[in-house]
Amino acid sequence: MDLKNKMVAILIAPKFHDEETTAPAAFLREHGAEVRYIGIQKGTCQGKGGTSLTVDSPIADVQATEFDGLLIPGGGAPEHLRQHKEVLAFVKSFMETGKPVGAICHGPQVLISAKVIAHRTLTGYAGIRDDLLNAGARYEDQPVVIDGNLVTARIPEDIPAFTQAFATLLTRFDRESPWLHLNPAQALEFAITNEIKAWELYENLSKRTKDRLAKAKFRFLAEMEKAHQETLTQVFEKVYPGRKPQSRNLPGIGEGGQDIDPDGDLAKILRSAMAAEEAAYRLYHQIAAKVLNRETKKIFEDLAEDEQQHRKLLEAEYALHTGSGLPSAIEKEPWWSQNLW
Q1: Alpha helix (H) ranges present in the chain?
Q2: pLDDT of residue 323
Q3: Phi, psi of 286 (to 5 degrees)
Q4: Of 140, 173, 206, which closes a domain?
Q5: Which of 147, 162, 168, 334 is least crowded, fewest Cβ atoms below 10 Å from its Cβ?
């Protein structure tokens, strides 16, 4: 197992469980990962068993974007950690962006306070079972439970299996494709949010441009993204009856990328949009590979194919705008006839 270039944060506070903290840290370091102990403030922390650890960075000085994974050991530390807003925001960022998160024993208490476990399946110390259920989670009395990017365990005896499971998630995590570790509901919410952003972008571009054919192209793309949003919403509501999808972002990743300014330089906008369409293609292609239901698989295969076509249309428009002389996709595709618009 190669964990080189992986950075893991371990949350510590007074009365952390010694073995649940130091054993995973030793395993991760042995396999090449860099591990940093993150605490509430600078200095040292004493574990329940007397182990003294130095805080590498206080929570106020770090961002989740610096790390590839997060571990939350048990003991008495979670009771301290869950009282700090900075800690909860830090944890929530990991969960929302699909990065690997591991919590053992009382560690899930921090997840409860961060309000990130509704509809998730996890385990933990038997004494917090009711707390987990009251927070909307599904509880399983198993040594290790994996739900998307989240791995949880019950007691110190589960440490070897817990650490191995977390390390496996860590090896698979790709900052370029963080959605791979989202659970199905989160992946769908992420996709729906991106389609809304893409629709807004192309709508703005269609209103901004004065070129008749470019306007038609952007209008077409806007309508396609709106149709994608409706399709994905239907899938979500079918899989999760009675629930409505929530807005979900992954910083810097997505079809309607937050860094795309519809009023900025058109060439830059088109480059960003092409990259975003490629990211959307990879998302749908990877979801299709995981889905077992044939009908649902076909939906995502079609969505992936659409995104590839969108990228090609944007590439052709970019070529025209930058004067490379390539033929316009509008001229090659029959749906761009004036009669359709």
Answers
A1: 18-30, 77-81, 85-96, 108-114, 129-134, 159-172, 184-208, 212-239, 266-290, 294-322, 329-332
A2: 63
A3: -70, -35
A4: 173
A5: 334
Which member of 45, 80, 105, 228 is catalytic?
105
45 a catalytic residue: no
Q: Which of 80, 106, 228, 310 is catalytic?
A: 106
Are residues 90 and 223 both part of a single domain? Answer: no
**Which residues of the chain fall short of a pLDDT of 50?**
252-259, 325-341
Evaluate whether residue 1 is within a structural domain. Answer: no
What is the bridge-based pairing of β-strands 138-139 and 121-122?
A: parallel
Check if 105 is active-site: yes
What pTM, to 2 d.p., does this model score?
0.62
pLDDT (tens digit per residue) in 71-98? 999 999 999 999 999 999 999 989 887 8
Say if residue 30 is in the same domain as residue 163: yes
- What 139-146 contacts at long range (C-beta under 8 Å, 24+ apart), as own/partner pairs, is 145/121
